[in-house]
Structure formats: structure tokens, C-alpha cells
Amino acid sequence: MHKFEKSDATSLSEMVLADIVSADTVTEYFLDCVELREQSIKAFVSFDPSRVRAQAAQLKKSHAKGLLAGVPVGIKDNYDTMDHPTRFYSPIYDDNCPSRDAHVVSLLRQAGAVIMGKTHTTEFAYMHTGPTRNPHDLDRTPGSSSAGSAAGMAAGFFPIALGTQTAGSLIKPASYCGLYAFKPSYGLVSLEGVKPLAPSFDTVGWYGRSVRDLALMAQVLIPGFPKLNHERNFRSFGFCRTARWDQIDEDVAKALEAAVEDLRSAGHQVSEVLLPEEFAAVFDDHLLINDCEGARSFSKELKMHPDKLSVELLAMFERARLTTWEQESAAKRRLARLAPVLEEIFRPFDAVLGASCGSVAPLGLEVTGPSDFCKFWMAFGLPQINIPLGRPAGALPVGLQVVGGFRSDCHLLQAAEQIDAVLRNGKHSATSTIV
Amino acid sequence: MHKFEKSDATSLSEMVLADIVSADTVTEYFLDCVELREQSIKAFVSFDPSRVRAQAAQLKKSHAKGLLAGVPVGIKDNYDTMDHPTRFYSPIYDDNCPSRDAHVVSLLRQAGAVIMGKTHTTEFAYMHTGPTRNPHDLDRTPGSSSAGSAAGMAAGFFPIALGTQTAGSLIKPASYCGLYAFKPSYGLVSLEGVKPLAPSFDTVGWYGRSVRDLALMAQVLIPGFPKLNHERNFRSFGFCRTARWDQIDEDVAKALEAAVEDLRSAGHQVSEVLLPEEFAAVFDDHLLINDCEGARSFSKELKMHPDKLSVELLAMFERARLTTWEQESAAKRRLARLAPVLEEIFRPFDAVLGASCGSVAPLGLEVTGPSDFCKFWMAFGLPQINIPLGRPAGALPVGLQVVGGFRSDCHLLQAAEQIDAVLRNGKHSATSTIV
């Protein structure tokens, strides 16, 4: 039953390609995991074991050779899929059955992945939460909006999964659920077939069981992505608290500072990064742009089905209504002017470290906590990685965020691989992703 | 038969809303226009008069009250539509019937517009051309890629139409076909349901029969777009030749310079704008990024159906294959650094004028000429308008391009309205859009 519990997607596909195990053996294992815990987790909004088995059988028959041969994957329900309805957790789209797969779903299929099902998102990947529970504590949120993909990862339903991020929708659930996550640079991955929220920020991202899984997915989903050179030696990191450090829980701060100590003990230089004061406005600028763009993105739903929208979404429309065109333009202009300043700040470092979230997963399923430590970097489209920190038995996960310069995605993945290796051998070893 | 030949969308909707004419009377007129010339123009890839009549009858019955009540519209075939197949002029998508409308198609329907049909695009809005002919001269291209929308406009099949632009796909056909066209600032209009080509540049745009039509469409497609204040007085314009002025045909240069003279005679200041030398690299940087992003966008089609792609698209893949990750990053970085420089250059002016194209529509249907004068501004996401210049009887259309600062879309439309009024009263009056 637990034979693939420790296997990451990379080793699973290697075993399938080497005919050590078959795609259907792998699939049956993960179907068993779903069977065991889905009733309490509620990761899936659409799941059909027969369709999963049909894919595995087809792969076995055709001796699939892709980079993800036989690897089960969870797909957030804001990606169009031909073989599952696509509902965005909105009653408006109860009957929506897309005619084509989203771009990245096509690429996953071509690489031999097995689509396990559609995972719960919040309404339109915004704030109104679904029924999904955090496998580490069923009374807590898994985070939002990639809730089902993150909870399904933590429950062991699949070793890789797709999410999206506009503010903190990928990294926050990774932090709360103890997952490796990668949000590439803005614009690198096609959003074809993904319902837009705030197009200035919307980005495809994914979960894996290791940093190398995150890189493997990058190879599949970003054609032409440079190959990782595992021999590189990274030395110099920044540590950036941002203007919201006062919102960090003491336990989280301690865990992050311990990780920094582990890195220093291993011979790495970690320097405090102090941002100019003007960066304190970034949080509000992100919110404002998100509101205005979101209101435009869902304007047709507001006109046709105002009664079917959540109070959270209606509040966004109301904030957008009170924001002027000039205010939105000014916010965009401020971010555009700060971007090259940040680029210079990042230049001396191989990566910049910080918090993924200010707290562990909060109690309750309806509110998922602020995304400030994620959206600060989202405002500039920078690539972000969550590395789950080690923790005592029974403690809730805490994530270390590792951020790179714009389009330094490959470099960042390499740096994260090295950081992860240090932390797993340090006093504070990184955790398994499965609970 | 010709009763609505001179009516723009704004006046048509006003007449429908005031019950002066009914939606079906308007529709029948435009259906007659299609009947008369479509066989030689080939604007439509999907057209069904019965579906058009059904929409008009429904609008009449429900006394539709939208801003585009009863106004026929052409939709480029790279927008998803529920009631027409969406084929992108690619045999891969012969049977593609989307489950939902693209965002802007929904907004058009909500505003009371009548979808006339899907108009020809080049393959995936890139370079491989379709059968559409230029109504001004059937032996000439209408331009690409929004070929069917532009030709249909010039042939009088509809008074407004949707296009898209990544390099020059909207403005070039407008210039060749003698149309008013508006490409808003990058990111303003939702691309949901539009097949991506190069996401850093892809933008929704449209044609109309007047500048006020362009503004009316902005009101419909950009919720929250500021209202035009027709009383503003614009005085100061730039005139920018860019580094490609040596590619301008003499007749085009003369027409543009005559328009500038008209503006000066009417009391406007038009100053020559000289760009720093580093801007000469923008053309190649746009091409390089377009190639790399295009190759990523169509990577799934390349993998699954390489035999069904055009030689033009395969050449793009080949160029992308020979481009390194670092070259693409460097190109993006150069554009990001030049954007604020350009912003400063634009600051003294209400708008910057220039050429839309270096020539009139070339002979032949397979090649549509360079898009340099369009893509230069696309590289920075600036809003662009084409104003058709007046011309002697029988002469081919020439377009004046009017460009604004980023997100100065409303200001730009107002400036264009004033420029257009001057030109229509000047020695070189602006042309009708219908031939």
C-alpha cells in the first residue's frame, strides 16, 4: 500500500520508463490512496476511477515514453479539460464541458501523465472557499485557491499537481500543506484554457514531491526550458522580510531563522536585504490592480448572473467600482518603476529567501489568511518556490520561500535544489510532503 | 439598399434604441451587402443567415437596450464562439466547437450586437494567409491576420468587427482597407477565449466606421472605461518616423506629410520626435520574442500535428529553436528598460503620429508586407489607432497611425477624434470606410 509513498514523480516516471513498474500499478496505488482518504479531504470536484484506469491501460499498451510516463497528476478546476467538466467552483458553470484541453493539460497528456481528476478551487480562483480540508489537520484550511491540488498532494493522491497563482494561490497552500511548489516567471507558461482573474499577475504553477519534480514539470510545460546543471555551486543568498514582517507568527519566524542558520552553518552567505521604503506600497498596489482587473474579467458573469456570485466576489466589484482609472494607472506605473530597482537589489544574490506565509494553516475552512508574502513578489512577476521546512512530529508545516530574478527560473530551481539539500541535512530537515 | 452605407455603429444603435429602425431591418440590410459581394471577398469562414436573423428577431422581441442594440459585428475566427466553429484557419481545429464564448463575444452579445459570423484569420493569427481579398482591389491582400474582419468592414458587411494584434494584425489591415481601428493598451481587455500567439503582445482590438465607434466599443468591452469628454482641446502632437522610415513608399510619405500639414494649418503643433539610437533594436527584439513565445504557444500542435502546420509556422519554430533562452531574456530586458524612456518622450504630446504601414496593400494574397510600423509600438503595449486618410477616387487607402502613452486610451481616442475632424475638413479629407 505504501510502496510509492516516498517516490517522487521523477523516480516514478523513471521506473515506468525502465519497465520496473507499469503505469497501471502506479495508478492503482494512487487510486487506493484516494479511496482511503478522499471522503475526509475532499480534494476532488470531479473524479472517476474508470477514466483514470483507462488512461493507465492506454499508456501501458502504447509503452508511453514521455517525461511523465505513468505519473498521476491533479488538475485544478480552473483549467479546461475535455474529459471532465470545468466549473471554477461557480454554479454559473455547472454544465460547462470545454471542447479542448488547456494548453498545459495537453502537454501533460503528451508527456504521459495520468489525469487523476479535477481538484477543488475557490470560486474563479478568488476568495470564496470550497469544502477541501488540510490533511495535516482536518479542521484547518489547506489554503487557497489551489486548495484541492495542495490537499491532494499532502494526502498522497498524486505526486504532481497543477495550480495557479494571482496573489498567493499556489505558494500559500504549499506552505500550509508542506509542499514543494514552483511559480515560474510571469508569462513563461501559456495560460490558454485557464480562466483569467487578474491578467497582469495570473500565472500557471505546480506542486511536486521534490525540487527535481518541479524542474521536471518545467521541462514538460515550458518547451525550450534550459536543462538544470546540478553541479553549480550557489553561495550568496539574500533574506528579505518585506514591510509585513510584523505579521509573522513567532514560531514561523523561528523556523525561518533556523533555516537561515542551517544555510550559514553549511558555508553559505545569507545577507539581510532591506528594501527602500517605497516598496511598502506594493501590497496595496497589487490588491488594487487585482480588484480592477478581476472586476473586468468577471464583468460578464456580474451582468448575467449577479445572484450566483459570492459575497467575496461582490466585495471585489464594489472596491473596483470605488477605484478610479487614474488610481489603477498610477499603481501600474509604480510597479513598473520599482521593477528595475528590485532587479538591481537581486543582482548580488543567487536567490532571495523569505517567508511564504506569516502563519501556519489557520483554523476553519472559510478564511485562508493573507497572501502578502506571496503577492509582494507576484507584483513583479518573479519566479517563486516553496520549500517545506522540517518540523517536529505533529507540528504544522511552515514554508521557506525562495525567489529569483525575472526569468532566472532555471538558476532559481538549481539554487532551491541546493538549499533543500542543505536543509534536509541540517538541524531542521525538510519534511516529507505526505502526512 | 444603400440606406445604412454611411451609418456608423453609434448612429445605428441610436436609431434602434429610439425605435426609428428595428434590429431586423438593420440586419437585413447588412445581409444583403454580404449576399452581394461575399463570393468575391471571402470575408467569412463561418456564416449562416438564419442564425443572424434569429438573433435579430430575438432582439426585436425583447426590445434590447444595450449600447450596441441591433448592430451587426464580425468576429475574427480566433475568438471562441458557442454558435460557430472556431478553427483558427488550421486543419487541426476543423471540428472545434467551443463550449463558451470568448469574454468579449459575451460582452458584445450582452450589449445587443448581432454576431454576423466568423471572419477569416491567418493560421493561428500568424502568417499563413487565407482566401480573403481586399475590397478596394480584389488582386490585393486585405492585410493580415485580421483579414476577414477588415475586408468585411471595407465591403460593408458589418459596421464593427473584432480583430487581434500581436505585431500588426489589426492596424495593418486597417491601413490597407481604409478603416478606423483601435488597439487598446496591453492587458486592458480580457483575452479569455482567444487563442494565444505571443502572450507578451497579444491584444484584442476592433474596427469601426468612426472614431466614436471605436470609443463605443471601448465602453462595451472595457467595463469601467472612462467616458469621452468631447470638449477637450488637443494642441500638441509628435510625429515619429522610427528607424524604418527608409521603407516608406514615396506616396505614403506624401500622404502622411500632407495630413501633418492639414493639422498644422488648423493650428496644431506637430513636432518631429527623434528616438535615441537604441530604439533601432526594438523591431528585432519584437520578432525574437514573438518567435520564442509563439513556439511555446503552439508546442502542443507541433508535437501532435507537425504535418498540419504551415511552412510559415514551421519557420517560426526553426528560428525559435536557434534562439537561446538568454537571448530572449535579454530582448525582454531591453524592452523593459526602454519603456520608461519612451514614456518620457511621449510626455509633452497629446499623441504621437506616424505611419501605419510603409505601403498601400501589396498585390497578391499570400504575402501581406511588413508590420514594422505597428509592432514597434506593440513592443511597449501602447494604444494605437488607425485613421484612414483621404485619397483621390480610385486610389488605395493609406492610414495615419495615432499612438498614445500606456493606458492613456481615453485621452488617445479623444485626440484621434479631433485629428479626424481636422483631416475630414482639411485639404486631405478622411475617406469613407466603404468601397
UniProtKB/TrEMBL annotation, chains A, B:
Keywords: Transferase
Pfam families reported in the protein's UniProt record: Amidase
Superkingdom of source: Bacteria
The keyword Heme appears for this protein: no
InterPro entries in the cross-refs: Amidase, Amidase_dom, AS_sf
MF terms (GO), sorted A to Z: transferase activity
Domain Amidase residues, every copy: 26-413
Protein's UniProt name: Glutamyl-tRNA amidotransferase
Organism in which the protein naturally occurs: Pseudomonas fildesensis
